[in-house]
Amino acid sequence: MSRFFFETDAGEPCPTGFTAPADVLVHFLSFAFSTRYGAQHELSKLALVLRGRYKIDLEPLTTFADRDVEEEADQVELDRVWQDAAPLAAAIRRGIDVLASGDQEVDALVAVAPDLEPRLRELLAMAGWAAGRGARVRMTFEL
Fold this sequence. Notes:
Layout: E1 3-8, H1 23-33, H2 42-52, E2 65-66, H3 72-80, E3 83-84, H4 85-99, H5 104-110, H6 116-132, E4 136-142
Parallel strand pairs: 2-4
Antiparallel strand pairs: 1-4, 3-4
Helix pairs in contact: 1-2, 4-6
């Protein structure tokens, strides 16, 4: 099973975390990233709806990296994905609003990942906490 990690440079541990495995975030973020390559999974289509119809900037959500460092380029990528927490929190908040909106197309697309909204809400709590401290964050995964 894949694992999702959220880190901050806030200088203190984040008081909130995930209440269940967050592998659904690895899947969603990966499919959102892969839309540029023509991915046709429901989560890719969801990302396209969020970007297109709802004009949500998903760039903060698609800024993540593999934690497994096998060569120098991997470490460079891992260092590159640190980002300000506030834009990430804003993107997550807007996405959650859409998921909760009752949009029937969105509901049908997210049905393949029923844990997506709860994990996004938890990620929002973490990103919001970091944003309140002016911190940067990094999202990574392990396969």
